[in-house]
Q: What sequence folds into this?
């Protein structure tokens, strides 16, 4: 079966609804505010933001479905010679209040370009991923997180988790700091039956499974950590870690760059930026501190399941 | 007379000394901490940072003198086909505590590449500028600032101020927000006798004059505003304006990009980032508020001297 793009969009919207309801329940007091928007050139989306909740300081869960003509620079980057494109996706970033609750990011997306003539196939692929950025690395949480992702992946194909874990390590890397953004997770792009070895049907199911894995994983991490006591020092460190998140998103993140270059809706794109971030000159973590232990683990190739 | 690069570097170092002494006096309690650094590949610098002063929350006044081989991407961008380069510069950014004292940035720099053979000339030019980012636009301060810059420019060439003012408007522009970073100032690059119409001697004097204009201008702006009362609302707005400063520097600033790509000293490059920046989703200034008036003026082509 080939993919029907409207069905992908419908599935993503439904997952957006499930996630927002689930996060409001986990938060206890915060409510999402929705803003619908229309894109000049085609399509639009629904941005949902929760600010100043009990657990979530700032979080966005955004659905979009955009179509139109691709800018020249993006065509070159994608290696396609067609103008028309269609893209739908669900993207979320949560910045929690509590410094022991991690930042999380999840994205599922589908991209399509029609065939240019009767002799060619349409271009289409799925992409996405889910990754965690703890302010403080708690090994038990890392094991849990990566194990959950491995379970989701293994149900579809046994090489997905190891391949997509390496991909996440490489992607979420802050080159100028020589550190990873967090503990990674999984990242994949241009998934097709040829590149993945599973059918279009299965790829769509995989995409939905990733989307639906977010809520139980993150609510577990909230409940496990949100009652812990913390100090001003922990908050200060949280604000510093968030500044690295800003550096990654503005300097390297492909989704952010794509959005800024294609004249996307700025406030929806930059909802990923934290409510507060601090930059101190040349901060050095104290030897043997929790902060130093966290920094030492922000590198590629860590076996989080075995940690 | 041709430029002797060591003399440029010496002049810039002396201006760094003057500025740091002057800023410490204006601050009253803060002291600069110096860190010398050596660049792999050639050269180094002296980074001077003042944090948590009475007036200056975070400020950096950095001298650097780097040499070596130019990366391929930079060669292409510069349109030069020589490997060896020499660059010296003085760069400063001050983030004040007080929301009515503006953020300021100043840079003077000299770039040189030796002749590739006996038939060619060495490539050399000066660049730089000075620009202001008020959290709240105070027309009287804008008039004063631009008038001072015009006076410095006019002493060298009558078309400098109008040309370099437009250049600053174009350069310090946050495209995705469709707003200028602040009220601009002057910006210039690749200044040579041919491009400027004045001799190398005069260009060097102009570069030094820009460097020396900073201290009297900024101390005036400090003394004029630092006694004013302010509220939490003003501080919150300051943190939001700083987040735009982060967006400009990480997404567009050529100096930052050059530094990240040439493997520069990260903490010296990113000293320009503010101690605290806040991002709130889709913040709207209240109608007729001071915040809204400021936003309305963040555009190109404002005649600040006549405002």
A:
């Amino acid at each position: 079966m080939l993919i029907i793009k409207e069905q992908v969009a419908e599935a993503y919207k439904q997952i957006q609804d499930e996630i927002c309801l689930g996060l409001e329940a986990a938060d206890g007091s915060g409510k999402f505010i929705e803003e619908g928007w229309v894109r000049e050139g085609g399509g639009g989306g629904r941005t949902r933001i929760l600010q100043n909740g009990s657990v979530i300081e700032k979080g966005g869960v955004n659905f979009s479905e955009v179509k139109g003509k691709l800018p020249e620079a993006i065509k070159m980057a994608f290696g396609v010679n067609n103008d028309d494109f269609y893209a739908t996706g669900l993207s979320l970033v949560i910045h929690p209040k509590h410094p022991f609750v991690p930042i999380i990011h999840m994205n599922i997306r589908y991209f399509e370009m029609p065939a240019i003539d009767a002799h060619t196939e349409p271009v289409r692929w799925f992409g996405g991923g889910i990754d965690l950025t703890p302010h403080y690395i708690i090994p038990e949480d890392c094991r849990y997180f990566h194990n959950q992702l491995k379970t989701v992946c293994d149900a579809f194909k046994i090489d997905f988790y190891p391949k997509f874990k390496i991909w996440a390590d490489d992607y979420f890397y802050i080159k100028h700091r020589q550190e990873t953004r967090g503990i990674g997770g999984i990242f994949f792009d241009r998934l097709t039956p040829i590149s993945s070895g599973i059918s279009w049907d299965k790829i769509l199911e995989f995409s939905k499974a990733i989307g639906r894995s977010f809520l139980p994983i993150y609510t577990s991490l909230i409940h496990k950590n949100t009652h812990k006591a913390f100090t001003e020092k922990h908050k200060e460190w949280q604000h510093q870690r968030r500044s690295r998140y800003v550096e990654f998103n503005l300097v390297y993140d492909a989704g952010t760059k794509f959005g800024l270059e294609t004249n996307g809706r700025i406030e929806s794109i930059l909802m990923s930026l934290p409510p507060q971030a601090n930059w101190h000159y040349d901060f050095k973590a104290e030897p043997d501190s929790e902060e130093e232990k966290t920094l030492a683990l922000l590198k590629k190739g860590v076996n989080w399941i075995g940690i």
Summary: Residues 5-296 of chain B form a domain with the oxygen-dependent coproporphyrinogen oxidase fold (CATH 3.40.1500.10). Chain B has a mean pLDDT of 94. Chain B is about 40% helix and 25% strand. Chain B touches chain A at residues 35, 49, 51, 58, 60, 175-177, 239, 243, 246-247, 250-251, 260, 266-267, 270-271, 273-282 (CB under 8 Å).
